[in-house]
Design a protein that fits this description.
Elements (H helix, E strand, L loop, with lengths): L1 E8 L4 E8 L5 H9 L3 E6 L5 E7 L2 E8 L5 H11 L2 H11 L2
Parallel strand pairs: 1-3
Antiparallel strand pairs: 1-2, 3-4, 4-5
Helix pairs in contact: 1-2
Length: 97
């Protein structure tokens, strides 16, 4: 399945939208995070690592940092499989208190 990832590009954080192929079993997590108002983001860091997040306007809910290109998709799939709407709601409540 395809998911949308927003990449923040140096030096000014320009946003680029990418369509990324992930395993079909990630669909449930992807749909759940979208319903909660989240998006997937990625950014190449100055160190060469890649930071990927499940982002909400209140902050980053999940973060994965990878150091090799071949780790990027598995890390993205891990976040999608681990996304838990109830835990997100608890986190959001804390962020707003």
């Amino acid at each position: 399945m395809k998911v949308e990832v927003t990449e923040f590009v140096r030096p000014n954080g320009e946003r680029r939208i990418h369509s990324v192929d992930v395993a079909d079993d990630c669909a449930v997590g992807y749909e759940a995070l979208r319903r909660k108002g989240c998006r997937l983001t990625a950014e190449y860091l100055m160190t060469g690592a890649v930071s990927q997040t499940v982002e909400h306007e209140e902050g980053d809910f999940l973060i994965e940092v990878t150091f090799k290109h071949e780790e990027n998709i598995p890390a993205l799939e891990k976040m999608l499989r681990e996304f838990d709407g109830a835990k997100f709601d608890e986190w959001l409540k804390e962020m707003n208190s």
